[in-house]
Amino acid sequence: MDGKTVATLIVTVSLALVGYLVKYINDIAIARRKDTLERVNLQLKNLYGPLYTTGRAAEIAWQAFRSRYRPGKAFFGTQPPPNDEELAAWRLWMSEVFMPLNLRIEKTIIENGDLIIEQQMPECFLSLCAHVAAFKPVLKKWQSGDHSELMSLSNYPNDLLKYIESSYSELKRKQAALLGTLREKAYV
What we know:
By secondary structure, this protein is mostly helical. It has one domain. 76% of the residues lie in helices and 0% in strands. The chain has 4 helices and no strands. It has helices spanning 3-68, 84-112, 123-143, 160-186. Helix 1 (3-68) runs antiparallel to helix 4. The chain is rod-shaped. The protein starts with a helix and ends with a helix.
Protein backbone atom coordinates (compact mmCIF):
# COMPACT_ATOMS: atom_id res chain seq x y z
CA MET A 1 0.00 0.00 0.00
CA ASP A 2 1.21 3.41 -0.82
CA GLY A 3 1.10 6.41 1.52
CA LYS A 4 -1.93 7.92 -0.16
CA THR A 5 -4.00 4.78 0.33
CA VAL A 6 -2.93 4.50 3.98
CA ALA A 7 -3.78 8.15 4.58
CA THR A 8 -7.19 7.69 2.93
CA LEU A 9 -7.81 4.59 5.03
CA ILE A 10 -6.82 6.39 8.24
CA VAL A 11 -9.04 9.38 7.42
CA THR A 12 -11.96 7.08 6.55
CA VAL A 13 -11.57 5.04 9.76
CA SER A 14 -11.11 8.23 11.82
CA LEU A 15 -14.25 9.79 10.35
CA ALA A 16 -16.19 6.61 11.00
CA LEU A 17 -14.98 6.55 14.62
CA VAL A 18 -15.76 10.23 15.12
CA GLY A 19 -19.21 9.70 13.55
CA TYR A 20 -19.85 6.72 15.81
CA LEU A 21 -18.66 8.68 18.87
CA VAL A 22 -20.89 11.68 18.02
CA LYS A 23 -23.86 9.37 17.47
CA TYR A 24 -23.14 7.57 20.75
CA ILE A 25 -22.94 10.83 22.71
CA ASN A 26 -26.11 12.10 21.01
CA ASP A 27 -27.94 8.84 21.81
CA ILE A 28 -26.93 9.15 25.47
CA ALA A 29 -28.15 12.75 25.59
CA ILE A 30 -31.49 11.77 24.00
CA ALA A 31 -31.88 8.84 26.41
CA ARG A 32 -31.22 11.16 29.37
CA ARG A 33 -33.77 13.67 28.07
CA LYS A 34 -36.30 10.87 27.61
CA ASP A 35 -35.65 9.62 31.16
CA THR A 36 -36.02 13.15 32.51
CA LEU A 37 -39.22 13.65 30.50
CA GLU A 38 -40.59 10.35 31.83
CA ARG A 39 -39.93 11.49 35.40
CA VAL A 40 -41.51 14.90 34.80
CA ASN A 41 -44.54 13.23 33.23
CA LEU A 42 -44.90 10.98 36.30
CA GLN A 43 -44.55 13.96 38.63
CA LEU A 44 -47.29 15.80 36.76
CA LYS A 45 -49.59 12.81 36.34
CA ASN A 46 -49.35 11.30 39.82
CA LEU A 47 -48.45 14.16 42.16
CA TYR A 48 -48.46 17.77 41.05
CA GLY A 49 -51.33 17.49 38.54
CA PRO A 50 -53.76 15.91 41.01
CA LEU A 51 -52.57 18.26 43.76
CA TYR A 52 -53.07 21.26 41.49
CA THR A 53 -56.60 20.33 40.43
CA THR A 54 -57.68 19.28 43.93
CA GLY A 55 -56.04 22.30 45.55
CA ARG A 56 -57.65 24.70 43.08
CA ALA A 57 -61.04 23.01 43.55
CA ALA A 58 -60.66 23.40 47.33
CA GLU A 59 -59.72 27.06 46.91
CA ILE A 60 -62.72 27.74 44.64
CA ALA A 61 -65.04 25.92 47.06
CA TRP A 62 -63.57 27.89 49.99
CA GLN A 63 -64.17 31.17 48.17
CA ALA A 64 -67.77 30.13 47.46
CA PHE A 65 -68.29 29.19 51.10
CA ARG A 66 -66.78 32.44 52.36
CA SER A 67 -68.79 34.54 49.92
CA ARG A 68 -71.94 33.13 51.51
CA TYR A 69 -70.95 32.76 55.15
CA ARG A 70 -69.40 35.66 57.06
CA PRO A 71 -67.92 37.42 54.01
CA GLY A 72 -65.40 40.15 54.62
CA LYS A 73 -64.31 38.98 58.06
CA ALA A 74 -62.63 35.99 59.64
CA PHE A 75 -64.99 33.09 60.19
CA PHE A 76 -63.80 32.61 63.77
CA GLY A 77 -62.23 35.08 66.17
CA THR A 78 -64.34 38.10 65.28
CA GLN A 79 -67.33 39.68 66.97
CA PRO A 80 -70.05 38.70 66.83
CA PRO A 81 -69.06 35.03 66.78
CA PRO A 82 -70.64 32.73 64.19
CA ASN A 83 -74.31 32.01 64.87
CA ASP A 84 -75.86 28.52 64.95
CA GLU A 85 -76.69 28.56 61.22
CA GLU A 86 -73.13 29.58 60.31
CA LEU A 87 -71.65 26.92 62.59
CA ALA A 88 -73.94 24.28 61.07
CA ALA A 89 -72.81 25.40 57.61
CA TRP A 90 -69.17 25.22 58.79
CA ARG A 91 -69.57 21.64 59.99
CA LEU A 92 -71.42 20.61 56.82
CA TRP A 93 -68.88 22.14 54.45
CA MET A 94 -65.94 20.78 56.46
CA SER A 95 -67.46 17.29 56.55
CA GLU A 96 -68.71 17.12 52.98
CA VAL A 97 -66.45 19.40 50.94
CA PHE A 98 -63.20 20.51 52.54
CA MET A 99 -62.23 17.38 54.45
CA PRO A 100 -62.81 15.04 51.47
CA LEU A 101 -60.67 17.34 49.32
CA ASN A 102 -58.02 17.51 52.05
CA LEU A 103 -58.08 13.72 52.37
CA ARG A 104 -57.53 13.42 48.61
CA ILE A 105 -54.57 15.80 48.84
CA GLU A 106 -53.17 13.87 51.80
CA LYS A 107 -53.52 10.54 49.96
CA THR A 108 -51.84 11.94 46.85
CA ILE A 109 -48.91 13.20 48.92
CA ILE A 110 -48.51 9.97 50.87
CA GLU A 111 -48.80 7.68 47.86
CA ASN A 112 -46.60 9.76 45.55
CA GLY A 113 -44.18 11.52 47.89
CA ASP A 114 -41.26 9.96 46.02
CA LEU A 115 -42.09 12.26 43.09
CA ILE A 116 -41.47 15.55 44.90
CA ILE A 117 -39.15 17.98 43.17
CA GLU A 118 -37.00 18.74 46.22
CA GLN A 119 -34.63 16.54 48.20
CA GLN A 120 -36.71 17.04 51.37
CA MET A 121 -40.46 16.76 51.84
CA PRO A 122 -41.93 20.26 51.54
CA GLU A 123 -43.01 21.63 54.92
CA CYS A 124 -46.44 22.57 53.55
CA PHE A 125 -47.05 18.88 52.66
CA LEU A 126 -46.17 17.81 56.19
CA SER A 127 -48.36 20.57 57.63
CA LEU A 128 -51.30 19.52 55.47
CA CYS A 129 -50.96 15.90 56.62
CA ALA A 130 -50.81 17.06 60.26
CA HIS A 131 -53.85 19.31 59.75
CA VAL A 132 -55.86 16.43 58.28
CA ALA A 133 -54.81 14.02 61.03
CA ALA A 134 -55.71 16.53 63.74
CA PHE A 135 -59.10 17.23 62.16
CA LYS A 136 -60.19 13.58 62.17
CA PRO A 137 -61.03 13.53 65.92
CA VAL A 138 -63.05 16.73 65.49
CA LEU A 139 -65.12 15.08 62.76
CA LYS A 140 -65.64 11.98 64.93
CA LYS A 141 -66.98 14.21 67.71
CA TRP A 142 -69.33 15.91 65.26
CA GLN A 143 -70.62 12.51 64.11
CA SER A 144 -71.51 11.66 67.70
CA GLY A 145 -73.29 15.01 68.18
CA ASP A 146 -70.50 16.74 70.14
CA HIS A 147 -69.90 20.15 68.55
CA SER A 148 -67.65 21.50 71.29
CA GLU A 149 -64.60 21.55 68.99
CA LEU A 150 -64.64 23.33 65.66
CA MET A 151 -61.05 23.37 64.43
CA SER A 152 -58.05 21.14 63.91
CA LEU A 153 -55.28 21.56 66.45
CA SER A 154 -52.91 21.94 63.49
CA ASN A 155 -53.46 24.82 61.08
CA TYR A 156 -54.03 24.42 57.35
CA PRO A 157 -50.84 25.51 55.54
CA ASN A 158 -51.61 28.83 53.87
CA ASP A 159 -48.68 28.42 51.47
CA LEU A 160 -49.78 25.00 50.14
CA LEU A 161 -51.60 26.16 47.02
CA LYS A 162 -48.89 28.69 46.16
CA TYR A 163 -46.26 25.93 46.39
CA ILE A 164 -48.36 23.50 44.32
CA GLU A 165 -49.10 26.08 41.60
CA SER A 166 -45.45 27.12 41.41
CA SER A 167 -44.21 23.52 41.20
CA TYR A 168 -46.86 22.56 38.66
CA SER A 169 -45.94 25.53 36.44
CA GLU A 170 -42.23 24.76 36.74
CA LEU A 171 -42.79 21.14 35.71
CA LYS A 172 -45.04 22.14 32.78
CA ARG A 173 -42.31 24.49 31.51
CA LYS A 174 -39.71 21.75 31.91
CA GLN A 175 -41.98 19.26 30.13
CA ALA A 176 -42.53 21.65 27.20
CA ALA A 177 -38.80 22.31 26.90
CA LEU A 178 -37.99 18.59 26.97
CA LEU A 179 -40.66 17.79 24.41
CA GLY A 180 -39.36 20.52 22.12
CA THR A 181 -35.77 19.35 22.48
CA LEU A 182 -36.67 15.71 21.87
CA ARG A 183 -38.77 16.56 18.80
CA GLU A 184 -35.90 18.63 17.39
CA LYS A 185 -33.46 15.77 17.98
CA ALA A 186 -35.82 13.26 16.36
CA TYR A 187 -35.57 15.14 13.07
CA VAL A 188 -31.77 15.39 13.11
